[in-house]
Structures are given as structure tokens and as C-alpha cells.
Fold this sequence. Notes:
mainly beta
Amino acid sequence: xxxxxxxxxxxxxxxxxxxxxxxxxxxxxxxxxxxxxxxxxxxxxxxxxxxxxxxxxxxxxxxxxxxxxxxxxxxxxxxxxxxxxxxxxxxxxxxxxxxxxxxxxxxx
Length: 108
């Protein structure tokens, strides 16, 4: 057991802080919801005066945003009867890498 392995183990168990600064076009949506997805889990970002933040486990994620028109906090698919469109969803073009104990800032 060396200092490097101890520091790696400690860093991999810490949560990383993600700070998202959305652009004006994304905020034109009445209720935008941002979340990170790693293929298994979703981690939603909290809104604090148009700064979206969250404590996220280390790893690689896809950043997604949808307009929550029905204000239920979850993406809603369309309906066949009565007909209704699905909520619009967008995906950030790059992979987000989160490191334990570090801040990750994103402008989108």
C-alpha cells in the first residue's frame, strides 16, 4: 500500500461537483431539467438561480436536458390517445468526465 494508491482510493470514493451554466436558448424552455446519465443511473442537477449543480460519483456521463412541460420532474413520452407530443429532449455533444473531489464546470 503506497501513498499513491491511498490517494487514488480516497479520490475515487469522493463525489465530484458539477456546475452547469446553461445558455439563454436552453432557458427559453419553461421548466428545463438537466441530468447526467451513465447508462445505469440518472443524477439530476439542482437549479439555484439558473446555476445547475449536483454532487455526482466519479465516472463518465452524458448530459441531457428536457423541457418538463407537465412539471412532474420526469421525461414524458408522447401519447397516442389522446394525442400529445413528447417532451423535447437534447443531448450535450461531449462526454462529461467527473473526478472525485474536483469541480467540473460546463457551459452549454
